Fold:
Amino acid sequence: MAEHVIKLPDVGEGVAEAELVEWNVKVGDVVREDATLGAVMTDKATVEIPSPVEGEVLWLGANVGDVIAVGSDLVRLKVAGEDRPAAATPRQKPATEQRRAEPTASPRAAPAPPIPAAPKPPPRLLRGAPRPEGEKPLAAPAVRLRARETGIDLRQVPGTGPAGRITHEDLDAFIARGRTLWGRSGSPARSGVEEVKIVGMRRRIAERMALANARIPHITYVEEVDVTQLEELRETLNTEKRPDQERLTLLPFLMRAIVRAIADQPTINALFDDEAGIVRLHAAVHIGIAAQTPMGLMVPVVRHVEALDLWGCAAEVKRLGEAAKAGTATRDELVGSTITITSLGALGGIASTPIINPPEVAIVGVNKMMVRPVWNGMVFLPRKMMNLSSSFDHRVIDGWEAARFIQRIKALLETPALIFTDD
Amino acid sequence: MKDITCRLLVIGAGPGGYVCAIRAGQLGIDTVVIEAEKLGGTCLNVGCIPSKALIHAAEEFHKLVAIAAGKSALGISAGNPALDLAKTVLWKERIVGRLTTGVAALLKKAGVKVVEGWARFLDGKTVEVATEIGRQVIRAEQVVIATGSTAAELPSLPFGGRVISSTEALALREVPGRLVVIGAGYIGLELGMALAKLGAAVTVVEAEPRILPQYDGELTRPVAQRLRALGVETLVGAKAKGLTAAGDAVVVEASDGRTATLAADKVLVTVGRKPLTEGWGLDAIDLDRDGPFIRVDETCRTSMRGIYAIGDVTGEPMLAHRAMAQGEMVAELVAGEKRAWDKVAIPAICFTDPEIVAVGFSPEEAKAAGHDIKTAQFPFQANGRAMTLENDAGFVRVVARADNHLLLGIQGVGAGIAELSASFSLALEMRARLEDVAQTIHAHPTQSEALLESALRALGHAIHA
Structure:
């Protein structure tokens, strides 16, 4: 019998290391040729590692979450055949260093959406389940006395002792929980902690969020926008559109408004290299659109919005959004934004505090649209109102600049004809 | 006499009343207790304590008789013993005296005022007491009724002359030649057996089809065997119809309708006890009743605010230790503590030979309550200590839920096993499972090992069986 070492292959151009995100095998498993051993994640892509040969798994070179250098030993298999000199396979442990938290040239993740729920294992059966209806609570006399003196109805207290006996500790826990009456809701109070390892995409998001929040002094500005006219226009355009055109959402209008506002304030469309102390003002407007995907937050980028019309924006937003959700977005489609929009649609809330997608200096957050009464000086009128919550890097953008930018967008959106007027 | 005003008035200084008063005194409550007869009530004076004294004396005497008759397997011989029952009774009186004096001292130490005399309610907060020196009115914020119970009488055999209650049986000056006991409950059998050991020819008459009807047949079988060995005749399913015209025999009607005449020097009527609810003005306060008893809730409160009732007057089981626990609870309630009756186990003991201890559900009771059970018993025949005591009759039995092994009841029958009742009760009160008992080291060699072994047996792995 011989040993076959599988090394972490080159999983992408210029990629030196990858994070192990999944094992599909364990030591002792017999794998066929081409069976998937595990998966690693690079900056953008998740790559499955197939087994080149058939054999029995002897050794796994990393734990899920470890960052492994390309070329290091990943798996050792026992395979049929002659022994080969062990020296042929370097046995040092793969480099498993924690990824340093530093900005990369290709930012992907940005604002602060709700954290997607991690997949959970089936809930464990907890001791201290509610006792059947009508069963007397079991407790020693001292526990019963203490319950009586502290005004606790033992029928409400879950017992963790043998046969569901209520212990002094159970009383302590019940009191600490604020005397939750689980008996009434029918669902027991739970204890126990489930550890979810933050790996892969989630870990990238976590690192980038921490970085953005730690390094960038955010200034967040919330303004309301009357989108009544805009909505009328959008309706009309959607009615009149050609069949090959995408239905317009509000986003293309906002994207075009941003392009126009940036024309007056190029410092908003910039990348700040804070280590070099240089702000690079970009002529191209590449707008990242934060999107929730099954893997977590992703930010596909609509490139050269300054060169796209409304319909072009709509088509790109839709195409990229679907690609991101399906996991088919290319690396190029996920990097290179110069400013970001974050919108949660109907979940947009009244206001939010978006986190900047570094090294960008601005992010525009869209809150939910709703009909609100607006005083026109004479009467209250029902108007379609929507807030924009936007954050700026206060190191390079002052509050006045930020306000001017948003006020300009507000003006453009409230009188949408301005969006289409040539300067 | 000047009226007395107090915060708590306890009527009756039996085990319930005096415990309540002492505890209230300890808690700083201004307390008065009224007793018409002697401190300690039925229990100390004419119940638990004197009967146990008589039972012990009878056992000692009976042993010597057996030894004198050459029946000792131990190689002991002795001359013919003699008994001076009057001296036995004097000895018993001294024990009772020590205990009642002790109660008086404890009451005094707790700062409780004792008023001697017969109490009668004037209203819910006022009681008058007929004392030796006149009428005393006592006003109290709260009142505890602890009047207890008295021996029930048979209409066909009213007390008097040869017909005696347990009270008189405990003060006999000489052993009756022929004793007929009516009622084979625990009082009748305890006293009947003791007097049989003292030399009386005893016949026990029971209306139910078997003796000790409150216990199951398994538990009473060793007692029935012992009764036969002692020469005590038992007539079950038979009713006492009255004395003969001459008054020296009891007419008994058997279940088949035939009557028999049992000659008797004494007729001991032990057909139960009834709550003492008359003669102290219960009608003046009109409390809700529960059959013959006073209805109380889980805090021993009656239907009238400020009036509690404890002990035999509140219902079954009419046992001193239940009354004591109620009395303690009520005193603490009066002191403002949060309390309620939540006892799991009230042990019941029958001081026959052998003794019966019962705590919690018997197997039948557990099944009737809807439980799926596991039960097992361990015989004293396999217990070393029981052998060395020359008494290996009986067993210990455990009853537990089949699903989670929670103990529902523990019973036993055997010589001297009344002292095991504490561990039986403790196990139930602590909500022990079979495993808890099985995992507890029980000292060797003791009869208590039978408890361990019965728990092990219920779990399917007894060592010594």
Chain B has a mean pLDDT of 96. Residues 85-109 of chain B form the longest helix (25 residues). The two ends of chain B are 70 Å apart (CA to CA).
